[in-house]
Amino acid sequence: MDSLQEPRVALQTPSFSQEQADAQLRANEVTRQMSGLSIGHYDRTTLPSNSVMEDAYSEAIVEMPDGRKVGFWGIYDGHIGPAMSAALSRSLANSVALELGKAYASEILPPFETIAQALKNGFLAVDDHLVWDRRESLLEHAPQSSSITADPLSLPAAQFLKEAFTGSSALLSVYDSRTRMFYVALAGDSRAVLGRRHEPGSWTATVLTLDQYGSNPGEEARIRSEHPGEQDVLKNKRLLGSLEPTRSFGDLYYKWTDAMQDKVRECFLNDGKLGRQLAPNATPPYLTAEPLVTSVHIQPERGDFVVMASDGLWELLSNEEVVGLVGRWVDEQKSIGTEDGKKGWKRYISSVKSTVVGGNPTGQKKPQHSGSPIHPDDRFVLEDTNAATHLLRNALGGQLHDGEMVRAMLTLSPPLSRRYRDDLTIMVIFFDEGQGSIKK
User: Fold this and answer.
1) Whether 376 contacts 346, CB under 8 Å
2) C-alpha distances in angstroms, 35 versus 104, 130, 243, 251?
3) One short Pfam family name for this protein (predicted)?
């Protein structure tokens, strides 16, 4: 993906009017109240870049055995197709809820370690079912040789394993409204960031996740320790020189042995093709769906909000820019800090203090425009009543060139669009019940 500041020739002649651009930006936006959860509301939007969008999402409120309400928000960033991300949107929150139900049934106030293990168990149960259990089920019906074509599973084998053939990151957040604890589980490279008011017109950004990819020193150390002697286990900062995220659902190519992949080719796939051929799998599995889990105590009185998004957003905006943009949006719609707002976007962005929960931000992905001389006051704009759409518009260029950059980015169709942006899914969860939509 190229920098927003260096567009290619394809971006020079936008065909969208401002009205058409606004309609497309707002087409998928949603604002919802979460009844019984003691939060303000949350905003969501999506924008596809692939011909079939590979992102998916989920949200739910679940009542635990002791009667408490727990909120779930999930973003699933798929690759090699949408099958796994779609499956996670249907099943992951349910799997985690079952595990959390066990924890809450046994303890009134489960410690962090218990909640974290429940989240990990829920993640691994889904991946085990779709990748490992289905493999075993398929092998139970394996014919003795490839010449046997009457077996009922011979033709639909690829369909039976469609989720395992593809892959997906998963970012799942859980809010316990009784304790005000917010838990975040990540397997992959999406991100969650907490915004909290520091003082009038100033916010702090607390990163609740660490990007799990080859440039993360912790992930690199983990993978190399699990596969000693394999120099190319990470090549060009990618797993086996190919996959960027170092934790993921599905992706059987990095989990099954070569012999297992060959057996499936021989027995079930008439054309003899299982998919991409990678470097020899010397010591699989190379991938895990086990998430890293963090938590934070929510303080609604300090205007807390959480932004969750697939990596497409973080390739375009920094943590500080995201929190500053939403913070300014909040101040504007509350008619508080209006005079501060007149001082411009730079004040909001530059005043954001940034920290990381549970780790060092070394290796975190940086936005494409990092180091750009463009002034925030020349780029950012506030025009939308939905905070997620507000972030989307500014990620695509805001008011650069009088909005022409946004219109140009929206006119691009696949596969050209993938050279400039990924699929985008954005959620903004507000915990201050007084926060509403901005007044235009």
Assistant:
1) yes
2) 21, 33, 40, 37
3) PP2C
pLDDT in single tens digits along all 440 residues of the chain:
333 443 443 445 456 899 999 999 999 999 998 878 889 899 999 999 998 999 999 999 999 998 999 999 999 999 999 999 999 999 999 999 999 999 999 888 999 999 999 999 999 999 999 999 888 877 776 655 444 444 434 446 667 888 998 999 999 999 999 999 999 999 999 999 999 998 887 899 999 999 999 999 999 999 999 999 999 999 999 999 999 999 999 999 999 988 888 777 777 665 545 555 556 788 999 999 999 999 999 999 999 999 999 999 999 999 999 999 999 999 888 765 555 545 689 888 988 999 998 766 677 888 987 666 678 999 999 999 999 999 999 999 999 989 999 999 999 888 888 888 999 999 999 998 666 554 44
415 prior amide bond cis, ω within 30: yes
Beta strand segments in 252-303, E? 292-297
Q: Where are the alpha helices (DSSP H) in 354-427?
A: 376-379, 387-395, 404-411
C-alpha 19: how far from chain center: 29
Q: Is 38 left (phi over 0), alpha (psi -120 to 50) or beta?
A: left
Torsion of CA 105, 107, 111, 112, to 10 degrees: 0
CA distance linking residue 123 with residue 27, whole number of Å:
31
Q: Find all residues with CB under 8 Å of 434, minimum gap 6, and list them.
A: 40, 334
297, burial (CB in 10 Å: exposed 0-12, middle 13-18, buried 19+) = exposed
**Residue 91, phi then psi, degrees to nearest 5:** -125, -25
User: CA 405 → CA 14, 17, 369, distances in Å?
Assistant: 8, 12, 14
Global pTM? 0.90
- For every residue of 12-37, DSSP letters joined together read SS----HHHHHHHHHTT-EEE--TTS
What domains appear along the chain, each with residue ranges and CATH number?
A: 9-430 (3.60.40.10)
